[in-house]
Amino acid sequence: MLANAGNSVTFGILAISSGIMFFFTLQYVPETKGKTLEEIEQLWD
């Protein structure tokens, strides 16, 4: 990909995909700070 598109295009694509995954994680992955393993397990059931 780098050889065909160049540094800036490759960086832009990776930055956009990282941003999308960041917001996906914020939206769909529950907060587990301060919770016991049993409470975390209940979140996924």
Write the layout of secondary structure elements.
Layout: H1 2-5, H2 7-28, H3 37-44
Low-confidence stretches: none
Average pLDDT across residues?
91
Give the tally of β-strands: 0
Number of domains: 1
What percentage of residues falls in helices of 4 or more residues? over 70%
The global form is rod-shaped
- Give the number of helices: 3
Report how far apart the termini are. Answer: 40 Å
Question: Measured on Cα atoms, how large is the radius of gyration?
Answer: 17 Å
**Proportion of residues in β-strands:** under 5%
**Helix-strand category:** mainly alpha
- Largest sheet data: none
Order of helices and strands: HHH
Observed structural traits:
single chain, mainly alpha, 3 helices, 0% strand
What does this protein look like?
The longest helix has 22 residues, at 7-28. The protein has helices at 2-5, 7-28, 37-44. It contains 3 helices and no strands. The protein has one domain (2-44). The model has no long low-confidence stretch (mean pLDDT 91). The chain is rod-shaped and about 50 Å long. It is mainly α and 45 residues long.
